[in-house]
Amino acid sequence: MAYQALYRKWRPLTFDDVVGQRHVTDTIKNEVKNGAVGHAFLFCGSRGTGKTSTARIFSRAINCENPKDGNPCNECPTCRGILDGGIMDITEIDAASNSGVDNIRSLREEAAYSAAVTKYKVYIIDEVHALSDNAFNALLKLLEEPPEHVKFVLATTEAHQVMDTISSRCQRFDFKRITADDIYQRLSFICSAEGITAEERALRMIARAADGSLRDALSYLDPCAAAGQSVTADFVADFLGRSSDGAAVELCRAIAAGDSAAAVACLDAVSSRGRSFPAFIETTIQALRDMLVSKSVRSPRSDFSPEESAELYKIAGGISAEKLIYSIKTLSESLWSARQSSLPSVIFEAAVIKLCLGGSDGSYDALLARVGELERKIACGEVGAAAEIKPPATAEAAPESEPPSPASEAAPPEEAERETLAPQPEFVDAVKAKWPEIMESILADNRVILYTALQTCALRDFDGKLALTFADDGFAEFRDMVSPDTDYLAGLIKRVCGIDCAVTLRRDADFAKKPQIKRSDPLDALLGLPITEIKSRE
């Protein structure tokens, strides 16, 4: 007997055998059992989800001589004849290659005649969206007034391309993408029945690579099993050109630990084994997603093996949700950028190193990621007491005993001239002198977001008010971060400096002259991250 591919050999024969589509099969099975079967059905869904298989089961179920709870018996002469292809009353049409109006006209002429052997004629039109407009119009008339002995099943992967006048005359059923866990369970059952020895990790890797299609999963399993040896995760990785799930877990561990060397080593290992970088990054994104969900869901769904899921759960305890979100976004953007680059490996390496450095691009998302990491470290006791953390002196802060003077500051001539043209009132200089102490108090009060945002501001006078001045770029974000705490700042300044002044938020554009702001980042002392210079823009 000729060899039969697994996806053909294990095609479901009853409604109960269809995987992951109970919402469809239970409804149709009850219709058959109760004798209330519609004349036309529209099956929509992605490839490999069971549309055509369900249509074939339906064609046997409504014609079966001994139905069993709505399922075909697959043993009576009618069922055997349909399965063997000997009964011509069941017709399958590929609309992609029979899309013309003449094909539908021929179908209309044939439909007028009664079935030769079975009770009902059944027309299964696959990829129905490929029909031309004229063919759709010809089919419409047949669906409006169908003969009593004719049933139609239309299947499509592009439901939006089917005319509304057609879909409105059908019972529509949407087939869901099959979950990786359901695919894994089915693969395990088939391997047991076929005597195939396979590792759980290997089957789960196949299930995830199938992307919701059971047919694709069986197509991957077939050649792996034909190698004549146990189906291992390494063998499946070689066959699919992907890295093992363990490599993605190691990269996640390196990102969480901020270990650039380990992260680059993971990418080098992927490259040396000839693996697909995009597939590896996609697997890593999936792992990061599982880590993010595990921080808020007690028993998250995961497509990884139980051992790897447990390892990811442990790693998630050492990284903040904000950094996970930032990591997912950064790696997703690197996938798009790599498609436009002649050196995709460099794009991926740069993205991974940036994540290990904690987000050194100065963007708002990177700032949130760093704030989230700082909050996590403070909550876990990984950072010392806030009172012991001394922010480095900035260009505008000086010791209390010697308030800064525009004339005495070491600045370029152009910057010194700007200070001369725009002198600051005495109360602003007094606040500047006490600014390190004010910042320590803010951090001691656990106002981390406010503390971080104030690293980018300059202290100015604006109509007798203390103006916290931010660069035009990103002003809206910093305003949202600081505005709720302006009254708190005014009270803190009064307590530390003895000065009663109102606090306002301004952008550089509000001032005629805007000296550059050069600051070192106090978060570097806590996180060990590279310095980010934030400059105001003209």
What does this protein structure show overall?
With 538 residues, the chain is of the alpha/beta class. The protein folds into four domains: 6-174, 3-Layer(aba) Sandwich (Rossmann fold); 180-240, Helicase, Ruva Protein, domain 3 (Orthogonal Bundle); 245-356, Zinc Finger, Delta Prime, domain 3 (Up-down Bundle); 393-527, no CATH class. The protein is built from 25 helices and eight strands. It has helices at 6-9, 22-34, 51-61, 77-84, 101-111, 133-144, 164-167, 180-194, 200-209, 214-225, 233-240, 245-257, 260-272, 277-294, 306-316, 321-339, 344-356, 364-380, 413-421, 426-433, 435-444, 448-453, 475-482, 486-497, 523-527, and strands at residues 40-44, 90-94, 121-126, 150-156, 171-174, 458-462, 465-470, 503-507. It has a five-stranded parallel sheet with strand order 2-3-4-1-5, covered by helices on one side. Strands 6-7-8 form a three-stranded mixed sheet. Helix 5 (101-111) packs parallel to helix 6 (133-144), helix 12 packs across helix 17 (344-356) and helix 14 packs across helix 15. It is elongated and about 105 Å long.
